[in-house]
């Protein structure tokens, strides 16, 4: 057998890295057999501890030196975690640890015994099941951790050690029950998984230990949900974090992602190195496993750090924690996931991989960073441009994932068709309730779905049905089926979705109590503090319909009446007697009070006993009073009193309440079990609404920015039909940089007619980089089905879009900026086809000019021979002196003009070559000292004897001066909210009156001007609905139907924002709106005043009558400006 010293053992694999955010996981099955250290079944270890001379201590040490083989790697893992602790308090605890058991407990210390029957022994048994998870054990009102786990709590959760820093006791820390969520968030945020052990609640026999059980786990991306069913709140659920595995095959790189929460996996095969790194950079994964096939790069060596292929992936993984795998990648990953999360071997995972045939390649990391698909400093963030500011969370994540992984042509066309329909919708639209699919699956699986979450699920289903029931939205719902299939991997047809949503919604409505039930109020009695009944019954009343638990509800009502009667008979006479006493300060005091800590209603008083018993009212009741006792039989205090009758009534009430609560939770758990069988439909419906909300938000923002829908061309045909439309090229008219807002001002627009490669030149600050970014973004938006910032566009379905901008050096990888650039260009050239869009900015800028020019020329020739579309921009003007063998490459330039003795850029794309760099002007504008610039100009003149004024040479060799003008650049409603007949009737009356008042006046004025009549079309916005995109930017007049049936009249150019503002006020959340669009703000202002003045004459009550004093406010642009609306 091998003798090892714990302090000297190190993991032999040089690729392992550990840091404060490392994630815990067991070693692979193949790891133990691969090392000579594990030839025996046990490992003998010695450890550093203080010397002791007692025989018992020596015997103890000999017994504990034998460590089971299965525990040793976990103990060493915890030791490495302890070595990176930095806080003083945690370092003090680390000194008291030993490394021969999974808890790190020294049995020589106080409370360190691991004997059978002790709490430590029980914790050790739980720890052995999940050896790399922090274990929190419920002990009374605290969750305690000992040994290694206590050090982690102190280091990462900011908790203080229990008992201070005494050196004679074991490390221990804990948190109160009320702070559990915060502690779990702190631990999972730092990458730790947590196992939570709960006590079995209820009475126990004297001197017996409470039973305990593992109630659940908290992992990064998967929170602890035990007990949520009893809460009346919504749980914040983070983005699910997968376990990721990466391998290499003949097709390229392969990435396997496994989501334990969803029980799903997906495989992305044939990835380029850059696409893989992008996925790793944007994926917040829980664990990372690398297959040993990655160690063999294209040169056939096993050195992963060599230059060339694999270097970018190494740089990405080098700073993260990962583990090597051997054998079959897929089988190993699934085995690890089951081992990590403690899953049974019978658990299966569903494949959600969607075939990637004819789908564009995922974006490279450089492309995603340089156009802002990944948030990058100094680059406009695409999500903030594609979506309005109030669209965040799940819809924004969907759009981000779509940009990083563009869809196939069929899906992109479908998304565009959906957006076009959304753009023309005139009816109201749902709020689109967003429910995290992983949260939905976990809550149903663990039977922890509470009343709030069921109501939210019902809202999701009802909004699906609202889309189905609307003539304008029905087709949108039908088209959303395919994008949802791609996002979820679930294939559910349209009719099945609608039928299942109807059934599930009805089933939830049968069980769950909605807002329309009036028989769910807490019990009440004037003599019992109201907060007592509210707090006792709020944990279960209002969750399910009373009809299902009639007997239990009635028993609670009877028990509450009995308690109220007992309190009235036993306590009230005493209180009345005290109130009748008019003694000065120091006299009797007494009242009926709620003892919240003891969940009881008792009499609280002092000095109320009479000095002489004279048979007066209240004396008999005073004699019945006795001191109140807590649950352990201890006297509560000197001021608290009760009676036998009251205590019996309290016991009966609590038992009835506990029974009712148990039955309510059973109903909720039963409903969760029913819905789990329909979980695929629920996940599909939830994702469909997320996509719908994202696309509606994009259309709203696109309309506001005055973007257009491009014409998508499947120029490469279908492999099934073999047909193409014969067009190869991209045309964009009036292209605007995507970060410019056309609604706020005008920028310089360019027209792009690209049928081959462009070789682009232009001065510094001339707009080359902006043009490349704009073209890249427009092409990406187009192939994703989104609107583009242009006046019109024809965009082909590219198989890849690749943009290379500036490069930086990477000292950690020992690579210069030119090496990084060459590495990126290599991957671009290897991945480019005739169906690609390649954009390279200022090629070969980081090396010697002559050789860099030749490399650039050779790359241009290569791209030209490939036949892809794209642009290569450069300042290497000597490239035009080389004998280029290009056939299709066109020379383009960014224009400039000579104004007032200075050359200035026009930011316009023109034909030809621009040799003017404007380097001196740029340096001067950026504040470089004038003497430096003057000296540079002298050196430049001395180096060039010929006149080098700015000129343009077209592709045929003729000379011309660029004289372009200088632009000015500036920067069937089935919703869950049921309206009453009275509300509907009032809405119809308001609509009729509004139409009559406004239409009549508009007709009269139009006749005076002899203009075409303007029709009033009123639209009702019910609760939990919002206006359609067609209302964005238009002037409108609106009427609010308040809960008190009074009206508010207003006008706005931002209807959506105004509705949101009104509904944010207390009591206005479920208000209904009626609006109609008008031609211009002046008309809106006049009609607003007209309605305020006229509606009261139709017997409507208004809250803003005072606004009607401005009777002649505003003028109408389409009517006679002298007409007054009175």
Structural features, described:
With 1126 residues, the protein is an alpha/beta fold. The chain has 33 helices and 37 strands. The protein has a 6-stranded mixed sheet with strand order 13-12-9-10-11-14. Keywords: ATP-binding, DNA damage, DNA-binding, Nucleotide-binding. This is DNA mismatch repair proteins mutS family domain-containing protein. One of its GO terms (biological process) is mismatch repair. It comes from Deinandra increscens subsp. villosa.
* Main sheet attributes: strand count, strand direction, barrel closure: 6 strands, mixed
Q: What best-fitting shape do the alpha-carbon axes yield?
A: globular
**Mean pLDDT, rounded to whole units?**
81
Number of helices: 33
Multimerization state: single chain
Protein name: DNA mismatch repair proteins mutS family domain-containing protein
Domain DNA mismatch repair proteins mutS family: 836-852
GO molecular function, one term: mismatched DNA binding
InterPro entries: DNA_mismatch_repair_MutS-lik_N, DNA_mismatch_repair_MutS_C, DNA_mismatch_repair_MutS_N, GIY-YIG_endonuc, GIY-YIG_endonuc_sf, MtDNA_mismatch_repair_MutS, P-loop_NTPase
């Amino acid at each position: 057998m091998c003798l090892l010293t714990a302090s000297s053992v190190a993991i032999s694999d040089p690729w392992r890295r550990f840091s404060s955010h490392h994630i815990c996981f067991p070693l692979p099955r193949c790891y133990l057999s691969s090392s000579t250290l594990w030839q025996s079944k046990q490992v003998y270890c010695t450890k550093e501890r203080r010397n002791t001379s007692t025989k018992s201590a020596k015997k103890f040490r000999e017994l504990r030196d034998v460590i089971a083989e299965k525990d040793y790697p976990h103990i060493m893992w915890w030791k490495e975690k302890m070595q990176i602790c930095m806080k003083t308090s945690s370092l003090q605890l680390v000194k008291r640890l030993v490394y021969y058991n999974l808890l790190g407990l020294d049995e020589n210390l106080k409370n360190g015994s691991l004997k059978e029957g002790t709490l430590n022994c029980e914790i050790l048994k739980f720890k052995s099941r999940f050896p790399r998870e922090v274990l929190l054990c419920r002990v009374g009102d605290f969750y305690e951790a000992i040994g290694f786990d206590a050090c982690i709590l102190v280091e990462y959760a900011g908790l203080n050690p229990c008992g201070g820093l005494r050196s004679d006791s074991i490390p221990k820390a804990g948190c109160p029950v009320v702070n559990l969520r915060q502690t779990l968030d702190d631990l999972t945020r730092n990458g730790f998984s947590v196992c939570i052990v709960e006590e079995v609640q209820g009475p126990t026999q004297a001197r017996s230990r409470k039973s305990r059980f593992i109630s659940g786990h908290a992992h990064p991306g998967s929170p602890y949900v035990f007990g949520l069913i009893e809460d009346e709140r919504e749980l914040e659920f983070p983005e699910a974090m997968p376990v990721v595995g990466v391998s290499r095959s003949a097709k390229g790189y392969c990435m396997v992602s496994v989501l334990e929460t969803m029980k799903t996996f997906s495989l992305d095969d044939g990835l380029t190195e850059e696409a893989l790194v992008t996925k790793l950079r944007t994926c917040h994964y829980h664990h990372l496993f690398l297959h040993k096939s990655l160690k063999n790069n294209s040169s056939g060596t096993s050195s992963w750090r060599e230059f060339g292929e694999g270097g970018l992936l190494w740089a990405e993984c080098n700073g993260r924690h990962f583990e090597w795998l051997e054998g079959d990648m897929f089988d190993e990953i699934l085995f690890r996931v089951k081992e990590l999360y403690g899953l049974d071997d019978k658990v299966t995972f569903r494949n959600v991989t969607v075939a990637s045939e004819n789908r564009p390649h995922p974006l490279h990391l450089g492309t995603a960073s340089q156009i802002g698909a990944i948030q990058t400093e100094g680059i406009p963030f695409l999500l903030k441009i594609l979506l309005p500011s109030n669209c965040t969370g799940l819809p924004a994540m969907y759009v981000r994932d779509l940009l990083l992984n563009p869809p196939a042509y069929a899906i992109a066309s479908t998304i565009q068709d959906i957006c076009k329909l959304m753009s023309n919708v005139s009816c109201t639209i749902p709020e689109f309730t967003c429910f995290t699919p992983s949260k939905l699956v976990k809550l149903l699986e663990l039977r922890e779905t509470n009343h709030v979450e069921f109501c939210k699920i019902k809202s999701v289903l009802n909004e699906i049905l609202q889309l189905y029931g609307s003539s304008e939205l029905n087709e949108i719902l039908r088209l959303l089926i395919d994008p949802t299939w791609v996002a979820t991997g679930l294939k559910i047809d349209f009719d099945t979705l609608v039928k299942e949503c109807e059934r599930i919604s009805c089933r939830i409505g049968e069980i769950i109590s909605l807002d329309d039930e009036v028989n769910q109020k807490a019990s009440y009695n004037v003599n019992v503090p109201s907060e007592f009944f509210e707090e006792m019954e709020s944990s279960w009343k209002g969750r399910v319909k009373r009809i299902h638990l009639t007997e239990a509800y009635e028993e609670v009502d009877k028990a509450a009446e009995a308690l109220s009667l007992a309190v009235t008979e036993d306590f009230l006479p005493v209180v009345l007697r005290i109130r009748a006493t008019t003694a000065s300060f120091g006299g009797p005091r007494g009242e009926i009070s709620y003892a919240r800590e003891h969940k009881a209603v008792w009499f609280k008083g002092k000095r109320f006993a009479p000095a002489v018993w004279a048979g007066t009212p209240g004396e008999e009741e005073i004699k019945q009073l006795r001191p109140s006792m807590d649950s352990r039989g201890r006297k509560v205090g000197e001021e608290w009193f009760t009676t036998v009758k009251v205590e019996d009534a309290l016991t009966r009430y609590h038992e009835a309440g506990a029974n009712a609560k148990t039955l309510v939770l059973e109903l909720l758990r039963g409903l969760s079990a029913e819905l789990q069988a329909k979980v695929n439909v629920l996940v599909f419906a939830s994702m469909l609404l997320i996509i719908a909300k994202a696309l509606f938000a994009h259309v709203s923002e696109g309309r506001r920015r005055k973007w257009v829908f491009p014409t998508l061309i499947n120029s490469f045909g279908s492999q099934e039909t073999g047909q193409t439309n014969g067009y190869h090229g991209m045309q964009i008219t009036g292209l605007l940089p995507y970060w410019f807002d056309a609604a706020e001002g005008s920028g310089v627009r360019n027209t792009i007619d690209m049928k081959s490669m462009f070789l682009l030149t232009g001065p510094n600050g001339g707009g080359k980089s902006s043009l490349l970014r704009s073209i890249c973004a427009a092409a990406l938006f187009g192939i994703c089905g989104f609107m583009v910032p242009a006046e019109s566009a024809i965009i082909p379905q590219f198989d890849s879009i690749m943009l290379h901008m500036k490069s930086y050096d990477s000292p950690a990888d020992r690579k210069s900026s030119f090496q990084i650039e060459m590495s990126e260009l290599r991957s671009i050239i290897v991945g480019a086809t005739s169906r690609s869009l390649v954009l390279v900015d200022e090629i070969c800028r980081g090396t010697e000019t002559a050789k860099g020019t030749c490399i650039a020329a050779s790359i241009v020739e290569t791209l030209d021979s490939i036949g892809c579309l794209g642009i290569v921009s450069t300042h290497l003007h000597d490239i035009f002196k080389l004998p280029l063998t290009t056939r299709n490459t066109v020379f383009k330039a960014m224009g400039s003009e000579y104004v007032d003795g200075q050359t200035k850029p026009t930011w316009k794309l023109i034909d030809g070559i621009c040799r003017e760099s404007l380097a001196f002007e740029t340096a001067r504008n950026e504040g470089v000292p004038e003497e430096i610039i003057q000296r540079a100009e002298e050196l430049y003149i001395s180096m060039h004897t010929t006149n080098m004024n700015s000129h343009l040479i077209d592709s045929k060799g003729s000379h011309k001066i660029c004289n372009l003008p200088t632009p000015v650049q500036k920067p069937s409603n089935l919703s869950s909210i049921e309206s009453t007949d009275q509300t509907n009737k009032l809405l119809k009356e308001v609509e009729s009156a509004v139409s009559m008042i406004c239409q009549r006046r508009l007709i009269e004025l139009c006749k005076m001007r002899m203009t075409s009549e303007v029709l009033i079309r009123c639209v009702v916005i019910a609760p939990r609905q919002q206006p359609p995109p067609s209302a964005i930017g238009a002037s409108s007049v609106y009427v609010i139907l308040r809960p008190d049936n009074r009206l508010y009249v207003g006008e706005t150019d931002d209807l959506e924002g105004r509705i949101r503002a009104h509904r944010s006020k207390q009591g206005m959340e479920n208000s209904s709106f009626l609006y109609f669009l008008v031609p211009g703000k002046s008309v809106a202002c006049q009609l607003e005043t007209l309605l305020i003045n006229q509606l009261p004459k139709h017997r409507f009550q208004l809250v803003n009558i005072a606004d009607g004093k401005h009777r002649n406010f505003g003028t109408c642009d389409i009517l006679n400006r002298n007409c007054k609306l009175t």
